[in-house]
Structure formats: structure tokens, C-alpha cells
Design brief:
InterPro entries: Homeodomain-like_sf (IPR009057), HTH_RpiR (IPR000281), RpiR-like (IPR047640), RpiR-like_SIS (IPR035472), SIS_dom (IPR001347), SIS_dom_sf (IPR046348), WH-like_DNA-bd_sf (IPR036388). By secondary structure, this protein is of the alpha/beta class. Helix content is about 60%, strand content about 10%. β4, α11 (about 220-225) and β5 form a beta-alpha-beta unit.
């Protein structure tokens, strides 16, 4: 898990450690320029408390934190013309600015996500999908919306894809899994308690597992056979909405669908058209006119 995510989670932090974490998150690059005594003074804490916090998130001390956090911020940094994924508009923004910023945000998110995709990894994913008797999707809240769209597309070309919306049902789904299934697990943080419970069950069932998660180390990635990274510029909590993360996940799933579709382009297209005609409730004469 990256440093920023750990600071946001505040897992087992004392009140003083929470104050330090929130100050670091708010002040970004400026923090890494500060000495430990300066940071202690600014957060009304002590150097010893800062050291304890850095060790609590798996670092060796404050100097290690400055080096690693600086590198992390560089990787996630925005260029001058990029939209802030967490706050793409302000309370002063006009409707026109909101519309324009969201278009730019979408474009930039897709470009960032594309830069993280690897053709060889996609080839492995498609091979696993073709081999699997059933593909099971796992996720929580917003990620399930993207998963549902993927399931709908895959079902229309004849691939058996299963997903459940309730946490308890997903536990049952994992418990019923097998080596001839394929699990696609979606979690932006990769640290959600329910998600980790499911992947542990899936590993006990020897089910191949693809993780779609944020860039960097997290619990989910440690259980995955294949990791696909999302755009990771979005914060967990301090944001208006998950604009970037959901768009990134939807794009990844759409790319996976298209790559799978292409493996049997004509067959999948015939199956989809046949499925759509069979499920379309419009009068037959309208369908005939559409196809003429």
C-alpha cells in the first residue's frame, strides 16, 4: 500500500499521529522539505511521535519517509495543465467550467490508465478468461457498478460471468469457487476487509485471481496472479466523488472485454447480435427497418 493511502486510513493511529498524517496529506511536497523538528513544530507534536508514525506505516524512520514519499508524490504528481482528480471544480466554478473540466479529467484519466496497461499482461488475462468455465466478479460499492457493465457485455457474447451485489453473497460465491473459475477482484485501495476475506477464500479454492487495484503494494495485490493498476491519483476520502477511479476501472474492464471479443471477433459479434435481437422487445417491423 502506498504511503498516502496508509496515512488516509489512519489505521491504529493515535490522535497525535492522526494530526501529523493529516498535515502531511494537506501540505504535499512541502512536507518533504521539512526537517523532523520543523514538522514536529508545525504539527504541535514531537520528533519521537513522527518516528513512531513512520515505523507504524512500515518505514525505517523520517529520512526513509522523506525519500519514499517524495518519490511517490513525483509519480502521482499533476502537470500544470492537469485537472485535480479530487477537486475538479470549486465552489466558484461556473457550469461551463465544470463541463470543460470533467471532459479534461476524463481524457487525462484514460491516458494515465493506458500508460499503466501492458499488452503482454492483457494477453495473459484473455488466455485465463478463455480457459475459465466461469468468471466471477468481486468488488464493493462503486466498483460493482463497473463490474455490472462488464458482466452485461460478456453475457451478451456468451461467456458465463457471475457477480453478487451483497457482501454475504460474495462470500458464498467465493466459497463455491473452484480451479476452473476465474476471479476478477476490483478494489481501489486493495485493503478493504471484505475483499481480503474473499481473496483468502479464493486462494484456498485454488482459483486464479486477477486484481484491478491501485498502483503500489497492497494486500489484494499480494494474493493476485495478475495485477492491473488503475489511475492512482485519487485520494480515498478527501475528494468530491470517485470520478477518476471509476472511470479508470471502467476503461480497464472495457479494454479487457474488447481484447477478449477480438479473439473470436465474428463469432462473438454473431452471438451478440443474436442475443440482442432475441431480448429486444420492440415490434418486429421496427427491427426489420433498423437492419435494412
Amino acid at each position: 500500500m502506498n504511503i498516502r493511502t496508509q496515512l488516509e486510513l489512519e489505521d491504529h493511529f493515535t490522535d497525535s499521529e492522526k494530526e501529523i498524517a493529516r498535515y502531511i496529506l494537506t501540505n504535499g511536497k512541502d512536507v518533504v522539505k521539512d526537517s523532523i523538528s520543523t514538522l514536529a513544530e508545525k504539527t504541535y507534536t514531537s520528533p519521537a511521535t513522527i518516528v513512531r508514525l513512520t515505523k507504524k506505516i512500515g518505514l525505517e524512520g523520517y529520512n526513509d519517509f522523506r525519500i519514499r514519499y517524495s518519490a511517490e508524490l513525483e509519480k502521482l504528481s499533476l502537470s500544470d495543465n492537469e485537472i485535480d482528480v479530487n477537486f475538479p471544480f470549486t465552489k466558484e466554478s461556473s457550469y461551463e467550467e465544470i463541463m470543460n473540466n470533467l471532459i479534461l479529467l476524463s481524457h487525462q484519466t484514460l491516458e494515465h490508465t493506458k500508460s499503466l496497461l501492458d499488452e503482454k499482461v492483457l494477453q495473459k488475462v484473455v488466455k485465463m478468461m478463455k480457459k475459465a468455465r466461469i468468471i466471477d466478479l468481486y468488488g464493493t460499492e462503486n466498483s460493482l457498478l463497473a463490474a455490472a457493465l462488464f458482466q452485461n457485455k460478456m453475457t451478451r457474447i456468451g461467456k458465463n460471468v457471475d457477480m453478487r451485489s451483497l457482501d454475504g453473497s460474495q462470500t458464498f460465491l467465493a466459497s463455491a469457487s473452484a480451479p476452473d473459475h476465474l476471479a476478477i477482484v476490483i478494489s481501489y485501495s486493495g485493503e478493504t476487509e471484505n475483499v481480503i476475506r474473499w481473496v483468502k477464500i479464493l486462494k484456498s479454492k485454488h482459483t486464479p485471481l486477477i486484481a484491478i487495484t491501485s498502483l503500489g503494494d497492497n494486500q489484494l495485490s499480494r494474493y493476485a496472479d495478475i495485477i492491473i493498476s488503475t489511475d492512482t491519483r485519487e485520494k480515498l476520502f478527501h475528494k468530491i466523488a470517485p470520478f477518476s477511479s471509476i472511470l479508470s476501472i471502467e476503461y480497464i474492464l472495457s479494454v479487457i472485454y474488447c481484447c477478449y471479443f477480438q479473439e473470436d471477433y465474428d463469432g462473438h459479434l454473431d452471438h451478440k447480435i443474436s442475443f440482442d435481437k432475441m431480448s429486444d422487445k420492440r415490434p418486429a417491423h421496427l427491427l426489420k427497418d433498423e437492419n435494412d
